[in-house]
User: What shape does this take?
Amino acid sequence: MSENMIQLSVFAFVTAIIGLLTYMKCRGANRQQSTQNKEYFLAGGGLSWVFVAGSITLTNLSTDQLVGMNGNQMALLAWWEFSAVIGLIILAKLFLPVYYKYNCTTTTELLEKRYNNKHIRAVIGAIFFLGNAFIYMPAVIYSGALFMQTMFNVDIPLMYIAVAFATLGAVYAFFGGLRAVAVSDTYSGVLLLGMAIFVVFLALNAINYDFSDIPAERLTFIGDNDSPLPWHTLLTGMIFIQMFYWGTNQTITQRAMAAPTLKEAQKGVFAAAGIRILIVPAIVVIPGIVSYKLYGDIGDAAYGRIVGDLMPTWLTGVFAAAMAAAVLSTYNSLLNSATALYVCDIHEAYIKKDPNVVRLSGWVTLLLSILTLTLVPIYQQAESIINLLQQLNGLLSMPILSIFIVGLVFKNIDARAGIGAVIFGVLLYASLTFEFSPFYSSWHYIHLMPVTLAACVSFALLTNRFVFGKKIQFASRDDLEVA
Assistant: This one.
């Protein structure tokens, strides 16, 4: 039997096992119309802490992380993962109690209830939706297709692989809902983490644990001003990036909102934080650093190359199944959360109050998948996918985080002031960070994030007072605590 047939057979077998286990766990789920939103988008509130932790971990850890971070081929990118632990703690202790108090289906529902206005929910839901559609989903599909193409060294156009991923992901998201996504995430996550740790040991063994001849700037955790992550950015915008991503981002937070109780959700988030600090930093930087010594500066192709060269043939099929599951689970999660935002925040509020959720979700999923494939060629032109993602993320993250902060800290805020602050923040950040702008700043884009955040909060408060004539009040403890 040829090597490719062995790889394909193992790949198909492992993928089928994951699918079977997921089906057995999820069959019989309640899909009655009266609870359809909660069932489809929050798994009926039935995720135990194990599945919350597994789904959060694998939704975040996909090829855009493994390929993108290892593609930088330097140690300091691990700071993204170390700082994520703080973001997860903030989610568990600050945001989750409020989401559970207000019985939210989407994170943006909290905004509607705090500002007493459905329009602010719709605007932010639309921004999250567009962020998934134009930034995250194409990046995941592109990086997954690139990994498969590189690891197996196949002469298949990257676009063909991308189409296969997008099609399978769309089918899975449509038929499974969040429950199936979270369960398969957990099963796949155990496999992926195990295989990724094995890759770390294979890589270290390939260089006999000898890091000599690797430039110091590739090994340091203290980035200079010309590095992708200068050390001083850890003291400015990094914490706010993590607060936004883990605390308000529907794709991530949705998993933690799907537990039966707040305490169960918090257990899952803390477990995910433990995985992130103990395992994830090593698997997203060490293979890339080793690949620099073995192959030189090869960018985003580093991870697929080192796995394809060092892993035994029969295990590459297992690893391919784990990586494919990671791509599909992240893509499924993005599809599911984007659909939830459209259905709950926009369609039900403005078009039809009680739609057929499954059918409507199918149409949204189809349109999003077509858009994803249209954008993949653009991401092929990026020098570093992970750096591009973080820079684009700034357009949305700080303006959105600002109105969550204003909504939680204060009362008597006019929703129009919040919406205006978001629009102002997007324009401000774009004008400061993109080189074609006449207001372009040479500051690192992470430094510009707290500047944008502070400007947005100030804009909202000043507009609320001087344009809409409302005096702010600080929120009381009772406003935020779980009843």
